[in-house]
Amino acid sequence: MFEDALAQLDARHLLRRLRLTESAPGPVVTIEGRPVILMAANDYLGLATHPALKQAAIDAVVRFGVGSGASRLISGTLPPHADLETALARFKGAEASLVFGSGYLANIGLIPALAGTGALILADRLCHASLIDGCRLSGANFRVFRHRDLAHLEQLLSGRKARRPTLIVTDGVFSMDGDLAPLPDLIALAERHDARLLVDDAHGTGVMGDTGRGTLEHFGVESRLPFQMGTLSKALGGSGAYVAGPSTLIRHLVNHARSFIYTTAPPPATAAAALAALDVIRNEPERRTRLWTNRQRWVEGLVGLGYRIADTASPIVPVLIGQADQALRLAERLLQLGVFAPAIRPPTVPEGTSRIRTTLSSEHRPEHLDQALAAFRQAGHELRLI
Fold first, then answer.
1. Hey, what CATH topology would domain 51-283 get?
2. Is 234 annotated in the active site?
């Protein structure tokens, strides 16, 4: 029944397979029984294995058990959930926050609660799939604007019906390109056209800004945007997501966000770990310093080898290859040389833009990066990519 579809994907070099990582996340992991340098994780600050997070999770399991036992609106709201939401609101400078089981659940619950039938949603073309699916589920009229193209967005805003409720949707840091949304200009457009702006700051939280509060802090526009969402699964090292904003919005979501209402509450251990992560982000700013130092060393090394990288401004550094088969061959050769950096292919990225999406961590040491660059050099020459 499925063989033909799988064969077609394989023929186009687009078939995906699971690859087992046999150790905890870190700069070096075990794959197929041997150590390799990991250049493909979103654990930007190395918090997934931080002792404080592990201990917080263990303590929560001992006290509250493994699972929450019910949805949040039944009996699944436990002290770690409430404590985390209070801390997230404080971290984001918001009145309140609400925790979801994942970023995907947050976006498919939040967007329909913000814009329904009769509304207009305008989303950046390279928004994360969860944002796109949230837009589609909303029942609103949904259109995309060209990536970071303010003129195209303004054209769409100017052409809408007067007073039509409108939501603009964007990532803060785009997950496959590593570039940033032009938030000051987007906010100005939204204000001028009486539209709302939703920023998904999954890859900015903990990383961007002087204190790690995210992309809004990076641009100095926190006071101009009343709400935002982000995840607990990237720089915070755990799992889950949050929406932060006015208390009236949070109460609205509790009553209208279906992906919050109709799902079991996140395990207490993951909430406790995220709470500990916020403390680490505040108390160990040197992790961000190391991350950005590593990022600069890596970008300079790749450019020096002759690779073409995307216009990135984050720890996400995509190495642009083009065709899917070439990206696959490079990824496989890198793994043979001791570097795990998978190929990213359509439909995750547009046709003809397959790439090796590399990511940096604060825990990469200079020798890790030098070894990885040596592998990129050897593989690139062998495959005639540089």
1. Aspartate Aminotransferase; domain 2 (3.40.640)
2. yes
